[in-house]
Amino acid sequence: MRYREPPSGAGEAVADALHGARTSDVAAGRTTRPPAAPPTERILAALPGSRPLLIVVWGLVPWLNLAAVALLAPSWPGGIPWGEVLNRTATSFAVVLSLWGVSRITEELRRLQVRLTDSVEEARPDVEHLFRGLDSVTAPLVLLAATGVVLPLDEMVRAEPGAALIQGVTWVVIGIPLCTAFWVYVALQLGLIRLGRGHVTLRDYDGDRTLGLQPVGRLAFTGFWLILGSVGPVVLTGLSDLPVTLVGAGVLVAAVALFFLSLSDLHRQMVAVKERERAQATELYRQAYRDLRGAPTLDVLQQHAGLLGAAESLERRAERIQEWPFDEGTFARVVTIASSAGATILARLLLAPTGL
Residue 193 is part of which domain span? Predict the structure, then answer.
């Protein structure tokens, strides 16, 4: 596959042209699949009422859980602990962010597929096949069931079947958007891994520092923020619940690993393009200085001034090329945030037994 940057300002024209070409594709026997819709998108589309209202109602479920738990918790004589309130707030935020994030990623992925269709040699169905499984119902349900077995374990160990039942029922409701969001993130990153490992040949550098891959990096970063923003606060506010902490920490570790793995192949190819640009500059320098070493005079230097200028220009061009499909500042923030979140969770885990 080969990346070719579309003309500036032609994004809408490309999309219209590809949409118009769908009819000819069908006539020629080349059909594309209908847009993938993750389970939560299907549920929201099927339910009556406005979409924002449905998302808000879904996000209030953790508070119903807290009310039910409070009825079974006579050990809270001083009222509901502040930590429980913070945890339900974080969980509500995670539900709302998951529902919004899945919709955002789905829409951005559709635009990315249009862009890639114009940028690679393969047809639209081949590009869509890279991100297969995004609309899977089975995968989120498997995650939902597996996690639903783990989360009530602490209540079962304490012989609190009522609390375990509330935990399980609540998880069935809020786990659907959370598991769907995680699966959409996994499917997205797997698609980017396939893209990077599909013998992708990047176009030659023409001034775009990201070599035309900025939309890929932007989408990967959107998915990363979705998982970090939804799971991180839940883990930090739920450290007293060991199953929640272990599941959340596992999700965060997997998310970070997939994020860098999905872009590692594209990173290597971007580095290869940068090295090719550098090699061209080095060859010009070598040609110029070969004659200068034989006759180090001002006349010879002036004769090769143009060659040296071209080499210097190529060298500057090479140094402008980014090694990741997003700017270096974004990459540094990802590393900083990921490491800080990991250190904070580890510190809270170590201090939790002391009550600090």
Answer: 37-258+328-354
CA distance 230 to 177: 11
Indicate whether 291 belongs to any domain: no
pTM for the whole structure: 0.76
Of 10-14, 176-180, 189-193, 213-217, minimum mean pLDDT range = 10-14
> How high is the pLDDT of residue 230?
92
- φ, ψ dihedrals at 2, nearest 5°: -130, 130
- The residue among 206 and 58 whose pLDDT is bigger is 58
Separation of alpha carbons 272 and 264, rounded Å:
12
- Residue 320 covered by a domain: no
The answer to whether position 13 is within a domain reads: no
Query: How many domains are there within the chain?
Result: 1
Q: At residue 305, does pLDDT exceed 90?
A: no
Question: How far is CA 322 from its chain centroid?
Answer: 19
141-189 residue pLDDT tens: 999 999 988 887 776 666 667 777 888 889 999 999 999 999 999 999 9
- Angstrom distance (rounded) from CA 61 to CA 69: 13
Question: Tokens 């872009």 — which residue?
Answer: 263
Question: What mean pLDDT is predicted for residues 254-274?
Answer: 84
* 26 has a pLDDT exceeding 60: no
Structural domain contains residue 244: yes
